[in-house]
Automatic annotation (TrEMBL):
Signal peptide: none annotated. Residues 1-70 form the Ferrous iron transporter FeoA-like domain. It comes from the Bacteria. It comes from Blautia hydrogenotrophica (strain DSM 10507 / JCM 14656 / S5a33). This is Ferrous iron transporter FeoA-like domain-containing protein. SMART domains: FeoA (SM00899).
Amino acid sequence: MNLLDAKEGEEYIIKSILSNDEELEAFLFSLGCYSGEPITVVSRMKGGCVVSIKDARYNIDTDLAKAISI
């Protein structure tokens, strides 16, 4: 299941990042978004969602959310 399938307010553990784009993976890693880390969908909006990772909130788009496997 990916981040788009997650329920708002529920904490999940990131299983993997499903992408062949090394820049994207490096960007997510810099945010603290990598395998084994907890992630929570705070809210959804058109074109993406707001997530909480390590006490910080980020707005990510739909394509990025699809790449995060939980």
